[in-house]
UniProtKB/TrEMBL annotation:
This is DUF1963 domain-containing protein. It comes from the Bacteria. It comes from Vitreoscilla stercoraria. InterPro entries: DUF1963, YwqG-like_sf.
Length: 269
């Protein structure tokens, strides 16, 4: 077993093997404000890779340009197995909507949000559109951030819909509603686990954090979806009342570079 001081906690020792079995690669994203990034660099907010002239810009239902939330230049990523090795992946949301494009009834419908993947990148600016998206009242980000990527192995988060099943052998649909009933009285597993293995912060892949609940828990069709991107509240980045934003994708779709069925969610306190 690896020498991990977190497993010195008595409440976690009995579950060590199960915890280690959930290891999943993730890339922590460290953000720094910057106004000197090129159109092609990975970033949060700011001026993005302008869409090729034959590609329509994402618009909301009122015909307004959507806000570019995040841009990932896959060629800048450290070695990895899951994400594309090149191309630019972009995440847009409707920032003129008080729910920021979130549809509680159909989180896969790319009406209030849009994911674009440019597998082939041009550096000829004459072949690119010039798009300026406004800062709306509800825009969660008001400046441009550079991203540095830091690979890590992450263990399942206590908020994940599969936590109870993975760690406590509880049927998936009981894992969050009744999870405390499966823990011995006086055992501080949930509190200690949340502190030892937090899933907060910005990341690509790995396990998510929620302030409310996992949207995959209520839909069996979404059970296999994995985290694609998470953007947390930090500094000038604010999702409602200190919330967090997540995008999920089916592993097969990610392998096939199909971003048409991504699940979008954000919640706050």
């Amino acid at each position: 077993m690896p020498a991990d001081s977190r497993f010195k906690l008595a409440s976690l020792q009995a579950y060590q093997d199960k915890i280690l079995a959930t290891a999943r690669p993730s890339m922590q994203m460290i953000l720094n404000p910057s106004s000197k990034l090129s159109l092609w660099q990975s970033k949060i907010g700011g001026t993005h890779y302008y869409l090729p002239v034959n590609t329509p810009h994402p618009q909301n239902t009122h015909g307004q340009a959507m806000f570019m939330l995040a841009q990932i230049n896959c060629a800048e990523l450290p070695p990895h197995d899951n994400l594309p090795k090149e191309g630019i992946l972009q995440f847009y949301i409707d920032a003129d909507d008080d729910l920021l494009g979130l549809d509680f009834h159909n989180r896969l419908a790319q009406v209030g949000f849009k994911i674009l993947f440019h597998s082939h990148i041009t550096t000829d600016t004459t072949q690119l559109q010039t798009i300026t998206t406004p800062q709306w009242e509800y825009t969660p980000i008001d400046q441009e951030y550079a991203i540095s990527f830091h690979p890590e192995n992450q263990y399942i988060s206590v908020e994940d819909a599969d936590f109870g099943q993975a760690i406590l052998d509880i049927p998936r649909h009981d894992s969050h509603e009744d999870i405390s009933e499966h823990i011995p009285e006086g055992n501080t597993l949930l509190q200690d686990y949340a502190e030892a293995f937090p899933a907060i912060g910005h990341r690509l892949g790995g396990y998510p954090f929620f302030t409310q609940s996992d949207p995959r828990d209520d839909d069996e069709a979404l059970a296999d979806y994995i985290l694609l991107l998470q953007i947390d509240s930090e500094g000038d980045i604010m999702w409602g009342d200190s919330g967090v934003c997540n995008f999920f994708i089916h592993p097969d779709d990610l392998k096939n570079q199909d971003f048409s069925k991504v699940l979008y969610n954000w919640d706050c306190y």
